[in-house]
């Protein structure tokens, strides 16, 4: 295994989607307080990081824990769904190929830009959403299972 920087993280959607599934780091999986790990890239945009290999994802999670992050579990997810989720949130998606070691940034964001209940996609109550919007949300949630 070799140490690489952000240049080792694949960011091209056309390449990422060639992998059907990847492991994302999820905080509090299956709870109302569930969240996904992201890191700020050099261009200032938050990048959701996913891994081709579960052991590489677990290793990264351990490194995060050593920096006092809460425990994050590697969860296998569909790359198309991850890409769509990233784009909807104004983020990029990065994939770490098997055997590449990417270390967490030394500087962490002291305060998160996100908090439960304030995301834009959750601002409309279900009764004000169109059937297409409801169906799309249901499909995204079902794909997580």
From TrEMBL:
Domain of life: Eukaryota
Classification via InterPro entries: DUF3110
Protein name (record): SseB protein N-terminal domain-containing protein
Organism listed in the record: Prymnesium parvum (Toxic golden alga)
